[in-house]
C-alpha cells in the first residue's frame, strides 16, 4: 500500500492534498458520514476493494455505500458520481497555492 495523501479535517469539510491539487469535501445532509468517507477514498484513487481493506469492511458494504451515494445523487457510475459531487458543490478542486477552483 502507498502512503495516504495528507488530509485535513474540520467539522464541516475535509481537505485532501494530491500532489499539486487540493480536494475539499464539504459535509452535507445529502450523504451519510460513511458515504462521504467512501467518497474521499474514491477521490484519492482507491478501488472499492482497497477502501474495504482500509476501513476493515467487506467489499459488499463499501459497494452498497457507493450505490447508495449514486442513487441519492442520481448517478449510474463512479464517474457520474464524482461529477455530481462537483456539480452539487460537495467537492471542490483547486491547485495548491491558488485560491481558485482548478
Automatic annotation (TrEMBL):
SUPFAM superfamilies reported for this sequence: C-terminal effector domain of the bipartite response regulators
Protein biosynthesis recorded as keyword: no
Entry keywords, A to Z: DNA-binding
Signal in keyword set: no
Stretches assigned to the HTH luxR-type domain: 24-89
Gene Ontology annotations of biological process type: regulation of DNA-templated transcription
Domain of life where this protein originates: Bacteria
GO molecular function, one term: DNA binding
Protein name according to UniProt: LuxR family transcriptional regulator
Amino acid at each position: 500500500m502507498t502512503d495516504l495523501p495528507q488530509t485535513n479535517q474540520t467539522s464541516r469539510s475535509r481537505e485532501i492534498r494530491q500532489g499539486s491539487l487540493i480536494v475539499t469535501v464539504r459535509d452535507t445532509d445529502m450523504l451519510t458520514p460513511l458515504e462521504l468517507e467512501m467518497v474521499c477514498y474514491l477521490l484519492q484513487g482507491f478501488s472499492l476493494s482497497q477502501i474495504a481493506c482500509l476501513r476493515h469492511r467487506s467489499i459488499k458494504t463499501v459497494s452498497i455505500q457507493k450505490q447508495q451515494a449514486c442513487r441519492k445523487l442520481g448517478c449510474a457510475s463512479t464517474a457520474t458520481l464524482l461529477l455530481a459531487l462537483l456539480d452539487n458543490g460537495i467537492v471542490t478542486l483547486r491547485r495548491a497555492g491558488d485560491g481558485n477552483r482548478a
